[in-house]
Amino acid sequence: MLMWQHKKWVRGIAIGLGLAFLLLVWWILSSGSRHDQQISSDFGLLQHSVTAYAEQYQKLPPAIEAVPMNDAIRSRLARNNYSYTVLAENEYQLCTTFITKANGSTALQQHPAGKSCFINFVPLSGPSTPANLRVN
């Protein structure tokens, strides 16, 4: 028999380390999911802010920082590497990097792990809701 098989405290430490490892893996996976849910929520709010800006000024904002947003979202813009690009007069793209894959019920809740972009169309002739088309 091996030496560690005779010592109960060695087995206890090995079991404890194994459980700690499993707990760490669970925590990493669940924090990635929460992170991604926050991004989806932020993107929904940013879409509505861009749409409201476009309806008021009849043009898309030149930069995402031009739209009204709360301080929490503003602080996450750089930290989560959000990008905003105007593609056409009434079309823009929001991109970020997600940690986990998601198969939710809305376009913002359906994305692969890794970089994902959402193209949004905003009719400039009156009140509207942005339409989403995901581009990976």
Number of structurally distinct domains: 1
Helix content: 40-55%
Strand order of the largest sheet: 1-2-5-6
Number of strands: 6
Gap between N and C termini? 55 Å
How many DSSP H or I helices? 3
The value of Rg in angstroms is 22 Å
Shape: elongated
On the 0-100 scale, what is the average pLDDT?
76
Please state roughly what percent of the residues sit in beta strands, choosing from under 5%, 5-15%, 15-25%, 25-35%, 35-45% or over 45%. 15-25%
Structural class: alpha+beta
**Secondary-structure element sequence?**
HHHEEEEEE
Task: Summarize the biggest pleated sheet.
Answer: 4 strands, antiparallel
Low-confidence stretches: 27-31
Protein described:
It contains 3 helices and 6 strands. With 136 residues, it is of the alpha+beta class. The protein has one domain. The longest helix is centred in the first third of the chain and has 50 residues. The radius of gyration is 22 Å and the shape is elongated.
